[in-house]
Amino acid sequence: MKPAPFDYARPADWPAALALLAAGARPVAGGQSLGPMLNLRLALPERVADLRHLPDYAGVSMQGETVRIGAGTTHAAIEDGVVPGRLGEILAGVARRIAYRPVRNRGTIGGSFAHADPAADWVAVLPALPGHAIALGPQGERRIPLAEFVLGVFETALRSDELLRALELPALPAATRFGHWKFCRKPGEFSKATACVLALPGAVPTAVLAALDAAPLVIADASALLADPTAEAARITATLALDDPWRAALARTALRHAAEAVR
Amino acid sequence: MSITLAVNGALATVAAEPRTHLADLLRGELLLTGTHLGCEHGVCGACTVEVDGAPARSCLIHAGACGGASVRTIEGFAEDAVMAALRESFSAEHALQCGYCTPGMLVVARDIVLRLPDADEARVREELAGNLCRCTGYRGIVRAILGVLAARRAAA
Ligand SMILES: Cc1cc2nc3c(=O)[nH]c(=O)nc-3n(C[C@H](O)[C@H](O)[C@H](O)COP(=O)(O)OP(=O)(O)OC[C@H]3O[C@@H](n4cnc5c(N)ncnc54)[C@H](O)[C@@H]3O)c2cc1C
Ligand code: FES
Ligand code: FES
Description:
The complex is a heterodimer. Chain A is α+β, with helices and mostly antiparallel strands. Chain A has helices spanning about 15-20, 35-40, 75-80, 85-95, 100-105, 110-115, 120-125, 225, 230-240, 245-260; strands spanning about 5-10, 25-30, 45-50, 60-65, 65-70, 130-135, 140-145, 150, 155, 165-170, 175-185, 195-200, 205-210, 215-220. In chain A, the strands form four sheets. A five-stranded antiparallel β-sheet of chain A has the order 4-5-10-6-7, with helices on one face. In chain A, strands 11-12-13-14 form a four-stranded antiparallel β-sheet. Chain A has a three-stranded parallel β-sheet with strand order 1-3-2, with helices on one face. Chain A is globular and about 55 Å long. In chain B, strands 2-1-5-3-4 form a five-stranded mixed β-sheet, with helices on both faces. The N and C termini of chain B lie far apart (about 50 Å). In chain B, strand 3 and strand 4 form a beta hairpin. At the A-B interface, strand 1, helix 2 and helix 5 of A face strand 4 and helix 2 of B. The complex binds flavin-adenine dinucleotide and FE2/S2 (inorganic) cluster (FES) (2 copies). One FE2/S2 (inorganic) cluster binds near residues 96, 98, 133, 134 and 136 of chain B.
């Protein structure tokens, strides 16, 4: 339960952080996923690069109609309403159900997305939203659509020489409707099945089904799911190769409940 | 590496390997043994202390990240009025038996009382989900916190 030895570096700016990354350092943000992995010796980095002191790493800014959320913004800050408007309301509701408050006080939205645990809450919700992940590499910033960021279990579109710097999302109209449902036997434990549905006024609704031991399933057109949640949830779940009947039942239930919860 | 941090209001400079976590630093280097360790992977809550004004798992913050931080352990709440009320209430409601979970419980309880003054029983239970107690069955703990919340609402 004690980590193997590693060195610690605290880059003061982004070029220094990228240089450390290029030299093989493992980024650490809130340490709420990497910390347990270090203690359990599942991760054995020679050096960690602490991102928490980078300029603008945490915090939210408005750029016209776009909300830019620093990757280092904590779950707790989002729970407490640091993101404005309807988008903030939706994200706050999700954040409040991640882990426990002491974990949310340190854990970050960027760290969670970059970690890409298939059962993580941001992994289950961000792909339903319009917007981009902003990756920073030696060549500058690159924009990755949120729906295309998570590629698999603990696997993302980030290249090995890139850091996740921020998320950019449009400020959602007040009439945006959202439904979210996840199954945990105990508040704060990792979900066994999560789904969400997002309906922007005048646009095709989108949905995500996650905690599948695979990349989240992004449903680009969830109109049928909204029209007939029970039948469509069953149809979608049947297309997945879920070997355990209980998993299939939970996935189906999550999709149906999320669609029925849309408001 | 050498780390300087504030602990319970006083600056401390300690030498530690970067892999040392804050709980071991507090217990082993600073002899503040009120902070307890259970799981060492974030699940049990026994090690919860206040870091930069908010509860955090001291088993998940390794030495380097502590540099410049302000830490308050259970020992640092001796003079705190909210904590005094919680201590009384924990005692009156039999909210501890062996006491192993109690330092972490109290830090989280104080955060609930200050951050969620209107919390009801369901919310208190939800907020306590990250602190495990093997002895009490939680009923006394929940009652103790609800008692302090009610007293503060009555006094407001
Ligand atoms: C007890 C417990 C329960 C939890 N329950 C839940 C839960 O129910 N739902 C949930 O979603 N999460 C849960 N978590 C995880 C928590 O949300 C973490 O905060 C989150 O997964 C990781 O964020 P972090 O900032 O702590 O990242 P870290 O742990 O610091 O890093 C995680 C990984 O991402 C990499 N990384 C971090 N930042 C960047 C970046 N900017 N660019 C590139 N790579 C980066 C790191 O190298 C590391 O591999 C739980 C954690 C604990 C300890
Ligand atoms: S010892 Fe830190 S949460 Fe269990
Ligand atoms: S009083 Fe013994 S673990 Fe809580």
